[in-house]
Amino acid sequence: MIYVNNLKKAFGSQQVLKGLNLTIPEGQSTGIVGPNGAGKTTLIKTMLGLVKADSGDITINNIRLNGNYEYRRNIGYMPQQARYPEQMAVNDLFGLMQHLRGEDPVYLDELIEEFDLNKELQKSLRALSGGNRQKVGAAIAMMFNPSILFFDEPTAGLDPRSSYIFKERIQKEKESGKTVLITSHIMSELEQLVDHVVFILEGEIKYYGRIDDLLKENRQERLEGAIAKLMEEPGS
Ligand SMILES: Nc1ncnc2c1ncn2[C@@H]1O[C@H](COP(=O)(O)OP(=O)(O)OP(=O)(O)O)[C@@H](O)[C@H]1O
Prior knowledge:
It comes from Rhodohalobacter mucosus. GO terms for molecular function: ATP binding; ATP hydrolysis activity. Keywords: ATP-binding, Nucleotide-binding, Transport. This protein is α/β, with parallel strands linked by helices. It has one domain (2-232): P-loop containing nucleotide triphosphate hydrolases (Rossmann fold), CATH 3.40.50. It is built from eight helices and ten strands. The chain has helices at residues 40-47, 90-101, 108-114, 130-142, 160-175, 187-193, 211-217, 223-232, and strands at residues 2-11, 14-24, 29-33, 55-60, 63-64, 75-78, 148-152, 179-183, 196-201, 204-210. Bound molecules: adenosine-5'-triphosphate (ATP). The site of adenosine-5'-triphosphate has 11 residues, from helix 1.
């Protein structure tokens, strides 16, 4: 379970998270949606301790985040734009991850196979195509089999086949009881992958609940229509 309580974050004079409250259930998948700049990545980074909140609390699996980042061992994170040591070969990067963690990966070979990364292993990170870079990020997020997975726009830049394979993988992770959090601008993708949706607008949560309920409440058949309706609401 992840609890977020009255979370606030400003960058300079811009209040980016305006007192967010959220309970993310264990073993289910949640989509975070909202326009560009709404605060989705900032929320995820705050949960990971990569951005320090100005106030509020986050509790993950009963551990309150207060400068002790041991809980992060249980979280696999695929960033929107990963920064890597660019001159390093992909294979060496996987090795470095293993070394830093002091643990053998649980299913790296399987992920390399699934994402068709065998031909890329000897290439330096700087020589990878954008999509293959994404796949390396995905493999790093999942290789140690963490119980919580955060994916920030995971399929942006992937070709249709890779995107399909990746979504199958996320389904598998979900079915094995993981807690999955995904940000995406592709509503059809979220319909396939998540049970709950958080809609953030200008740093505030405008909706949090089951996708089915959101569709019913807004008399919509598709998530895209329901989110568009929420954005039209007065005060939004
Ligand atoms: N390190 C930073 N310094 C200053 N401003 C920042 C920083 N990180 C984020 N911001 C600002 O915070 C706001 C929210 O950014 P964030 O990346 O969380 O949005 P997002 O909802 O993930 O957007 P997108 O859909 O475009 O990825 C933006 O206005 C952004 O410019």
